[in-house]
């Protein structure tokens, strides 16, 4: 179930209540008259089945509540109510399979913005990956995979292409196009510092002796298959209620580790491995986006076609 809150100008409250009251997926409908201060109006609340959310939100947007008032959705972990159970049973489809298009657009838009936090996580992930390469530690490489925030912009690219939201494509492209080079430059500085100080020992840059992390630069068909499977799983997780699966997606792809390995290989003078790592990075990026887009197309064809999606908020 999702909890919906809608701030309504007083002249829009009655139509909004009619929409919610008439939909089988609605329960616990409440209206607070005149409590909204900015913008002024009434507050309408309801619990709605996830599979009904897209249709209800679209109908409320037709009333322009997203412009003259406000609409928010919040996931409910527990709802002990016969009315809520009945709403979920009457709403068509299954909650785990439902796609809330506006939620998807908002989520990918937020996670694909170029900001200090995104750059910090990406840089730390690349530094972790370089440490994993220098110490021949697969565990550290896995840690870098988990820390890396790059799946957000990659998912945004897929969403933007499929929904023809070029503003989202540009935003995600900027985040990746600036984020990865900047993180790799910082990692380059760190790798050079390690080499000068010899803090990891004389064998750190003998990459041919590091067998535990060879999978990072070994690009090939298996790399593409894994990237596509990860992209498909990631988009399924983002368009359903199974978001916990994203952790497995992060661990399965070698985007950030490939970037870190390329930098270390360049400092070590292993140009063949450097180029292979860059190839691995590109294969993973393209594979994730392509598979995510295919999954999104399939899911869109199986649900109501998204219309009237609100543009991204600046920030």
Automatic annotation (TrEMBL):
Pfam family, one: DUF389
Transmembrane helix recorded as keyword: yes
Keyword Ubl conjugation in annotation: no
Keywords, sorted A to Z: Membrane, Transmembrane, Transmembrane helix
InterPro entries, per the entry: DUF389
Superkingdom classification of source: Bacteria
PANTHER family: AT15442P-RELATED
Name this protein carries in UniProt: DUF389 domain-containing protein
The organism of origin for this protein: Amycolatopsis heterodermiae
The organism's taxonomic lineage, starting at the top: Bacteria, Bacillati, Actinomycetota, Actinomycetes, Pseudonocardiales
């Amino acid at each position: 179930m999702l909890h919906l809150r809608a701030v309504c100008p007083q002249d829009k409250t009655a139509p909004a209540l009619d929409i919610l009251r008439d939909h089988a997926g609605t329960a616990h409908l409440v209206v607070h008259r005149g409590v909204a201060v900015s913008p002024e109006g009434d507050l309408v609340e309801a619990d709605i089945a996830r599979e009904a959310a897209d249709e209800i939100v679209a109908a409320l947007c037709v009333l322009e509540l997203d412009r003259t008032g406000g609409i928010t959705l919040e996931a409910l972990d527990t709802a002990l109510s016969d009315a809520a159970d009945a709403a979920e049973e009457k709403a068509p489809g299954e909650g785990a399979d439902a796609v809330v298009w506006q939620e998807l657009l908002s989520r990918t838009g937020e996670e694909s913005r170029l900001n200090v936090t995104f750059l910090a996580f990406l840089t730390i992930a690349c530094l972790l990956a370089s440490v994993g390469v220098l110490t021949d530690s697969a565990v550290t490489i896995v840690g870098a995979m988990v820390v890396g925030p790059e799946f957000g912009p990659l998912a945004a690219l897929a969403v933007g292409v499929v929904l023809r939201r070029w503003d989202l494509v540009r935003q995600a492209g900027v985040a990746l196009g600036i984020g990865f080079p900047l993180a790799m430059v910082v990692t380059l500085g760190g790798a050079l510092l390690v080499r000068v100080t010899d803090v990891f020992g004389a064998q750190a840059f003998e990459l041919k002796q590091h067998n535990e992390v060879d999978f990072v630069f070994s690009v090939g068909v298996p790399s593409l298959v894994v990237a596509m499977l990860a992209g498909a799983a990631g988009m399924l997780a983002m368009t359903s209620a199974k978001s916990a699966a994203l952790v497995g997606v992060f661990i399965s792809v070698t985007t950030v580790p490939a970037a870190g390995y390329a930098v270390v290989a360049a400092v070590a003078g292993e140009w063949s491995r450097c180029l292979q790592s860059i190839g691995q990075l590109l294969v993973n990026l393209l594979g994730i986006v392509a598979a995510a887009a295919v999954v999104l197309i399939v899911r869109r064809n199986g649900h109501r076609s998204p219309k009237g999606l609100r543009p991204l908020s600046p920030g």
